[in-house]
TrEMBL record:
This is Arabinofuranan 3-O-arabinosyltransferase. The keyword Cell membrane applies. It comes from Gordonia alkaliphila. Pfam families: GT87 (PF09594). The gene is aftC. It is found in: Cell membrane.
Amino acid sequence: MDRYLYPRVDTPRILSVMLWPVAVMMIFHRSVILAVNGSRTDDFSTVYNAALNFLNRNPVYAENYTTVDPHYLYSPSGTLLMGPIAVLNPDHARWTFIAVSVIALIASAYLLVRLFGYRADSWVFPAVLFFFFLTESVANTLIFTNFNAFVLLGLVGFLVLIRNKKDYWAGACIGLTLAVKPVLAPVLLLPLLQLRWKVFITALGIPVALNLIAWPLIVDARSYLDRTVPYLSETRNYYNSSISGNALYFGVADWLVIVLRIAFVLMAIFSLWFLYRYYAKTDELLWLTTSTGVLLGTLFLFGSLGQGYYSMLLFPLIMTVFLSGSVMRNWPAWLAVYGCLSFDVFASREWEPFGRYLEYNKVPLGWSLLMITVFCVLLFRWLDIRNAEESGEDTSDDAPVTAPSPGAA
């Protein structure tokens, strides 16, 4: 009788049963309710208007960059790729863009789960989906309706394909994103270190070819170089979580900005060196995903513009928590994840200055703490290895324990 009163269900099955309905409802709420409702910040309208101007042979790069409204900053190749959205009316175009972005996010989650060796029917897939759509980064990507979901898909696709030795296709994933936004450009350091030149044929060839096609089709293409590119190099003091942007808003001294930027670059150089030396040959997955996170996290801090929803590009680094050599298996790393990905708002009526400080700094503090944590974890490992070698201990021990095989869990 007990087998009927207390049917046996294994833990992974219980987790799947718990997580799937919550993940599905989270996706529904973020996309159908919040995203369709929209927000005061509207990244889509500027893209739609630029696409409409492009199709109607009107100037595309004629905006007033002195305002704090979202600006159209895509290159001519990005304008060419975005052009078809203006065939629909604005509402239908926006809803279609949201729907395709959700598909891109789900595909990114699926590929990330498979990359780390888990099946799609495991509890890990709904857990990753739930985590994705729980974050501010994904929520505001859909609410503001911007291109970041496709950048994430390009990044994860690149990691999957380069692991499978499909270099041309891996480069194509990066190239298509570079044609619109150059945010993934630092990731090309990884195939460069491996001397995998085929990646660069498509990674650089696609945006170059698309720009050559788009240039004569845009009536004011020259304005992109004369007006937009100089603006991109400027540091703005609004919606900017980079070191320089945050410092400009709070009036931090220039010398301290320089010191901080140099410090994070030096930490990144050490982290990348250690990862390449000790993991590139023995644990390529851990090397690729952790190095990608270091490159992009440092770019967000060091660059002239770092926006909070870029944090979704750190998902492969966060996913390394499933690997035994991960730098994410400690509480400071997850405090940092909370800072840069939480959807919580810290605006306070009672303690207004303190709440405003937390709200404006949670993302840069999260990025900073994450990069510092990665550096410290790897530094301590290097010191342990050096001490062991100095004491004559054999450090060439067993191969690392990595993710489960694709048939696991």
